Amino acid sequence: MSILRAIFSHPSGRIGGTIVVIYLAVALLGMFDVTPYSPLQQFRIDRLHAPNAVYWMGTDLFGRDIASRLMNGIGQSFLVAFCSVAIATFAGTILGLTAAWFGKAWDGLVMRIMDVLLAFPAILLALLIIAVVGPGTWTSVAAIAIVYTPIFTRVVRGPALSIKAREFVDAARTFGSSRRYILTRHLLLNLVAPLTVQVTLALAWSLLTEAGLSFLGLGTQPPASSLGLMLADSRNLMENAPWMLIFPAVAIMISILGFNLLGDALRDILDPKTRRSAP
Amino acid sequence: MNYLTRRLLTFPLVMLGVSILVFVAIRLVPGDAITAMLGTEAGLLTPAQRAALSAYFGIDKPILVQYWSWLLGVLQGDLGISVIHGKPALAIILERFPLTLQLALMSMCVALLVGLPAGVFAATRNEKMSDLAVRIFAMIGQSTPNFVVGLLIIYALSAGFGILPTMGEFTPLFTDPLRNLGQMILPAVTLGFAFASSVTRISRSAMLDVLSDDYVRTARSKGVPKRSVIWRHALPNALIPVVTLSGVEFGYLLGGAVLVEQIYALPGLGRLVLEAILQRDYALVQGCVLFIAFNFMVVNLLVDLAYVTLDPRIRLGESK
Questions:
Q1: C-beta of residue B6 within 8 angstroms of C-beta of residue B14
Q2: What is the 8-class DSSP label of residue A57?
Q3: Residue of chain A whose alpha carbon sits nearest to that of B22
Q4: What pLDDT digit, counting tens, does each position of B266-320 carry?
Q5: Which of A33, A197, B153, B315 has the most CB atoms at less than 10 Å from its CB?
Q6: How far is the C-alpha of B32 from the C-alpha of B41, rounded, in Å?
Q7: Number of residue pairs across A and B with CB atoms under 8 Å?
Q8: Is A91 exposed, middle or buried (0-12, 13-18, 19+ CB in 10 A)?
Q9: B140 touches chain A (CB under 8 A)
């Protein structure tokens, strides 16, 4: 509870935390279709309707309610972001921990593979993976997870190496603690702080990447909705129906802003060294 | 072994890994290469024709042999033939590359011209209202995907002024520089927007660190004017993280301009990758990805070298 209190007493944390909580609620409602209308329902006579009391954010070319599609799209984008970051965190933590612990050939192998993955600009690697597997929601999850795994591996390996050399780990070994116990209780627990910061910031990046991929038509496929897809739909209609552009654009910006603010606050709280000159 | 030697030695190794990854990835595409190349027409081939084609393209050989001959070709500049364009992949890539390079350079100029003064300004007014305003703006800039910035700029121009960015035939820089700059300025601003925000944040925090150093205090106490302290004494030392960031971001711009090129219909390298993926032109996908990754790695290597040159403390062998 003290971490929650710390977040909400930090200015960025308060704003970021509130945004993230609101978005999570909207995402959950959208994911389970608890929306004003069904996101796929077409009101043919109300096509391209401006926002009003009935359609809060207007309707699109097919007469579908933008607010409902936006809620559903936020749910979809968050699903992709959370799943991909969860996979990247899990894979990156295991690879980073084992590389630090076993060292030698395994460390060399893991870190060279990560170097290779880091040799691609993120969106390009995601595009390569999608070129191979074909577009779709779960391909985006896999692509984003693979793109961010090396970052987590590096974030874990560095501190894990220095913790491994500390006396309390030697002491645990002398007392006969098992390898799994030392890895999870001593190393992993001490890595929770940098990992938490990284997870929050990675969520912002993966929301950004997901929006980009689905904007290009390589992520979530229509008729399902996602924020990037809604923006792609708005491209040719923005002059006549600006609400199709404005609402999803603002929704993406604020969601990423929320995670960035929260990430910055967590970095300040969990790593006091950076506090003085936090950007 | 010091950092520099290690860095130079691992470069070819990582490049080899990249080539293996790209080669294997393209061969994981479902279906065989002949079908990928000919599409539905592949169904009309007799087994003998198929075997002849396989032998011609060398895809009947073991995978290691295929990789070796592909790698030898790549080293001699042969990235394969694009099925859609009917030309060598490298020739098409080199046609498109100047635009992407120009776009990346222009966005970097935009980012540095806006970000650096903004960062320095905010640092000198630490914790005041103007500092807060710059920080909020930078945070919003960093949180806005570049394609959203692009769409909003296009909308603002068309709704506010009734003009649309020129999306017609692209004019190369040396054909008509004015027209070219007219076509490139909005994409460069779009791409430079988030980059400028990162530069602002990093230069602000670097300046804050430097401004609290003893030598700055000494300079101020001996009566050096504030402006001179900031720009002549403090800024050069605050530039190291900015150089690193700019280099890394420049590498990303060289390969990551897909979305902006798509929005402004610019025939650059990013758009070429996208077209190649959508048209299943695998030789071109492979060539582009390899080319971009190579550039990205070279830029990162240069950044590291610049880093070592700028900061003599990083002879790094000992600190790593």
A1: no
A2: T
A3: A128
A4: 999 989 988 888 887 888 888 998 999 888 888 888 888 887 777 766 655 444 3
A5: A197
A6: 13
A7: 143
A8: middle
A9: yes
Which of A218, A239, A253 minimises the CB distance to B158? Answer: A239
Mutation target among B6, B14, B26, B148 for the A interface, most CBs of A within 10 A: B148
Quick check: B205 contacting A, CB < 8 Å? yes
CB contact under 8 A, B255 and A124: yes
A59 three-state secondary structure: strand
Q: Which tens digit of pLDDT belongs to each residue from A252-278?
A: 999 999 999 999 899 888 875 554 444
Nearest to B292 among A124, A212, A277 (CB): A124
Q: Burial, B316: exposed, middle or buried (Cβ in 10 Å; 0-12, 13-18, 19+)?
A: middle
Q: B95: buried, middle or exposed (CB in 10 Å: 19+, 13-18, 0-12)?
A: middle
Q: How many residues does chain B have?
A: 320
Contact B181, B168 (CB under 8 A): no
How far away is chain A from the Cα of B172, in angstroms, using its nearest Cα?
A: 25
DSSP A56: T
Chain B partners within 8 Å of A267 (Cβ): none
Cross-chain residue pair A239–B154, CB shorter than 8 Å:
no
Three-state secondary structure readout of chain B: CCHHHHHHHHHHHHHHHHHHHHHHHHHCCCCCHHHHHHHHHHHHCCHHHHHHHHHHHCCCCCHHHHHHHHHHHHHCCCCCECCCCCCEHHHHHHHHHHHHHHHHHHHHHHHHHHHHHHHHHHHHCCCCHHHHHHHHHHHHHHCCCHHHHHHHHHHHHHHHHCCCCCCCCCCCCCCCHHHHHHHHHHHHHHHHHHHHHHHHHHHHHHHHHHHCCHHHHHHHHCCCCHHHHHHHHHHHHHHHHHHHHHHHHHHHHHHHCHHHHHHCCCCCHHHHHHHHHHCCCHHHHHHHHHHHHHHHHHHHHHHHHHHHHHCCCCCCCCCC
Q: Would you tell me how many other CB atoms lie within 10 Å of the CB of residue A162?
A: 10
What is the pTM (predicted TM-score) of this model? Answer: 0.87
Amino acid, res. A128: L
| DSSP code of residue A50 | P
Q: How close does chain B come to A238, measured CA to CA in Å?
A: 7
Radius of gyration of chain B (CA): 24
Residues 89-128 of chain B whose Cβ lies under 8 A from any Cβ of chain A = none
Q: Inspect the interface and report whether the beta carbons of B297 and A119 lie closer than 8 Å.
A: yes
Yes or no, beta carbons of B159 and A261 under 8 Å apart:
no
